[in-house]
Amino acid sequence: MRYLTDFFYSFTLTLQITNNAAMNNYQNHPLAGAVDIDSAFNKMWYFYKKYFLGLYIISVISALLTSLFTAGIDIASLQDASTDPALMLEKMKGMAGPYALTMLVSLVLGVLLHAWVLEKPSGEQGFISSLTRKTLTALVPYLAAIIILLILTILLTSVGLVLLVLPGLFALFYMLTVILFVMPVTLVETRNPMEAVSRSFKLTHRNFWANMGWVVVVFLIIIVASVLIGALVMLPFTGSLISSIANPEAASSLLEMHRNPLFIVLNALLSGLITPVMPILAFLLYFRNKGDEVTVEVTTDDNYKVKVEDLYPPAPGKE
Q: Among 172, 223, 237, 251, which residue has the least CB neighbours within 10 Å?
């Protein structure tokens, strides 16, 4: 028993030292230390410029792949089948596969983008292996946590909209703030979905009004940027847009625009400019609210639980 106790004590001490060292590296992360909206935007802009190439490449690849998969979906056929519920259901079943593949690609590359934001500034030689490991191990826990939070988001937002519009918007931005914390928590602290959800709520409430204020401001900026980007993407197709307005019967041609190769490329190249903003904001909020905490990565393996009494030598005669 004494040898086993010594082993557990050494193992626990090593685990704490390892995690403390890892967290010290993250405390030196370029996105750590923002205290107000000005310093937050300065850090976001600095990080965006310095690591733009990698952020942009991942974002463009994600947009291209998702656009290529959805290009195989004949959206216009839904309009033709709108009067036949059975045909509509049959066509929607045929679209389930491409949509599922699109969501899978978005999930994988979304997690990869967050892991890249976290690990890239360290500049270590094992960056690629660390990036791959973190991405693969975080996929399923993150998906489970997001499903839980999306259900809560739908419930809270629906109740808020039934009462009044403003409570619904408040609930939406509140849950969006919570959701932003999930990916950093999953990558840095725990692979347990319920613990990730609980921890995200806790961090959201640490500086609640400031957190949600930052999210609202950045989200509104993204909406404006998305509208401008959408207008730029539509420039080559202005003729089709005007003709569809003049002739409503030709409006269905606009539904086929997402299958146009020029539209796909332009949309990917331009949308890739704003996609990295939310992952950067997520870690900016995470590091700001985590503060100087020492966080030990949590696992769900109970085979080697260490009790408090195991860290101390046994009383005489009880070995």
A: 223
- Please name the residues in contact with 123: beta carbons below 8 A apart, sequence gap of 6 or more: none
How would you classify residue 33: left for phi > 0, otherwise alpha for psi between -120 and 50, otherwise beta?
A: left
Provide CB contacts within 8 A for 88, sequence distance 6+. Answer: 78, 81, 82
Element (H, E) at 186: helix 165-188
- Quick check: 242 pLDDT over 70? no
Q: Which residues contact 77 (CB under 8 A, 6 or more apart)?
A: 91
pLDDT at 311: 41
pLDDT digits (tens, 9 = 90+) for 164-201: 777 788 888 999 999 999 999 999 999 999 999 999 99
- pTM for the model stands at 0.76
Q: Which whole-number Å values give the CA distances from 71 to 18, 103, 219, 253, in the listed order?
A: 47, 14, 27, 14
245 pLDDT band, cuts 50/70/90, is low
DSSP string, 208-264: HHHHHHHHHHHHHHHHHHHHHHHHHHHGGGHHHHHHHHH-GGGTHHHHTGGG-HHHH
First to last CA, the chain: 6
The packing angle between helices 127-163 and 85-119, to 10°, is 130
Assigned token pair, 134 = 């973190």
Average pLDDT over every residue of 104-117: 92
